[in-house]
Amino acid sequence: MIGRNTTARGGSEGAQAATPYGGIDCVASGPKADVRGFVAALAVPGYRSILFPSLGRTFRLRLTNFDELRDYGPLQSFRPLFELDEPERTDAAVWQSPGTHVIRSAYTLDGINLADFGVFVQKGRDSLLRPAEVKQNLTREIATRDGRIYDTGIVRFNAKEIALKCCLKAVSTAAMWSCRDALFGRLTAPGEHTLNYRGKDYPVFYRECTGTRLIALRPGFILYEFELNLTVIR
After folding, report:
1. Which run of H or of E encompasses 196?
2. Which of 224, 169, 171, 218 is nearest to 54 (CA)?
3. What confidence score (pLDDT) does residue 133 get?
4. 3-state secondary structure of 107
5. What stretches in the chain show pLDDT beneath 70?
6. How much is the pLDDT for 2?
7. Is 173 found in the same domain as 115?
8. Quick one: pLDDT at residue 215?
9. Regarding beta strands 75-84 and 19-23, do their DSSP bridges make them parallel or antiparallel, or are they unpaired?
10. Residue 18 Cα distances to 61, 112, 142, 146, 231, angstroms
């Protein structure tokens, strides 16, 4: 989900892990401001349904802590922290067009160009093209012999972790959510996935999404930045 310091992680067999939402920066001012009462309302057992009007979506969140509270006399600032225990799963096969021009990408996911999700990759090619680390074969060291005996009969490679810094561009919050949900719905679907870069296939699975940041939120232009962390299996 979009928020401050959010991280969305993948789970086993395509399940989505709970998501640390992060904090919501709040300010209270005026003679009727009641921070203590507001905190007490948030701390009532159960979940809170919080509407974000600018994002056009309601999230069912659980309070976990308060990061800080500062008193400036006429106003107070505070930051409640939340968890999203039940990420919403959507149909990854159907989604809206981003509604704005996105240059065709050199990357595809399971045969779908990332531009169809409104996504373009800013950087990350180096991590994809970097050779994987070589696995260490059987090694023996004998006290009465110099050096070591190493099995050179075969060379195998480890899986490698890659990070793609991406932006999602859309004409509206509805289009942005539709494209985002479709992308992550596909990434978290069971089984391995195929990331293709300039004609070469890389079998991958999704690990997590970090560094989410809403860069632009205005009529006709939404820009959402995030980093996709994937594991290349072989």
Report:
1. strand 193-197
2. 218
3. 76
4. strand
5. 1-21, 89-92
6. 41
7. yes
8. 95
9. antiparallel
10. 11, 27, 49, 52, 20
